[in-house]
Amino acid sequence: MAGRKVRLRPVAVDDAELLELWQSPEYVGEFNVFGVKGRPVRERIEENGLVTSEGGTLIVALQPNHKPIGSVSWRGVRYGPNPQSVAWNIGINLIPEARGRGFGTEAQRLLAAHLFATTPVNRIEASTDVENVAEQRALEKAGFVKEGVLRGAQYRPGGWHDLVVYACVRETP
Ligand SMILES: CC(C)(COP(=O)(O)OP(=O)(O)OC[C@H]1O[C@@H](n2cnc3c(N)ncnc32)[C@H](O)[C@@H]1OP(=O)(O)O)[C@@H](O)C(=O)NCCC(=O)NCCS
Predict the structure, then answer these.
(1) What residues make up the domain containing 84?
(2) CA of 133 to the centre of ligand 1 (A)
(3) Residues with Cβ within 6 A of ligand 1?
(4) 60 in a domain, yes or no?
(5) What CATH code is carried by the domain that includes residue 120?
(6) pLDDT tens-digit profile of 111-167?
(7) Which atom of ligand 1 is nearest to the CA of 31?
(8) Looking at the 3D structure of the chain, how many domains does it have?
(9) Are 135 and 104 in contact (CB under 8 A)?
(10) Is residue 139 situated within a structural domain?
(11) Quick one: which atom of ligand 1 is closest to the CA of 103?
């Protein structure tokens, strides 16, 4: 999936070290510090390339030199017991020096288009801290519509936080 400024590509085993590094507090940014540690990234890449039927991760790379600058991810959230009622919740993290240059907007627009094209979901959503102005603006510019506030939804060391929910819904003819 290629845009004008960035492209999204699958994760390779060679990305393991970079993805581990990007999990450190100085890379994730103030809104993404949760104090949890998952299984080693390399092990998970070797298992499934970080894409399963329940979600996935792709690398965001610059155009035209393909330098990796972050990652986008998605996971299924269920709004009913049938498969049609699963939506994707997406997330993004860019390295500090790549922020504020329009890359996050384009990466999220590309991810939504990719997920609508390759999976049957009807809804793609994203939630972010009410204070994360950059992400809210990036989502709006990527075509997501603000739907409301989830009060006290997210715990990060130090306390509970309100999240703003944005979504886009598949256009039906
Ligand atoms: C949030 C994030 C994905 C946004 O992507 P980005 O490439 O930095 O944002 P863009 O350059 O596409 O800018 C989007 C808009 O937000 C604005 N913006 C960017 N940084 C901002 C800031 N710190 N404060 C206020 N507005 C900001 C931009 O000016 C732009 O709006 P404009 O075109 O009207 O001027 C990126 O900054 C990031 O990865 N941050 C750390 C991780 C994170 O917060 N992820 C989301 C958590 S849920």
Answers:
(1) 6-169
(2) 7
(3) 29, 31-32, 91-94, 99-105, 128, 132-135, 137-138, 141
(4) yes
(5) 3.40.630.30
(6) 999 999 999 999 999 999 999 999 999 999 999 999 999 999 999 999 999 999 999
(7) 44
(8) 1
(9) yes
(10) yes
(11) 7
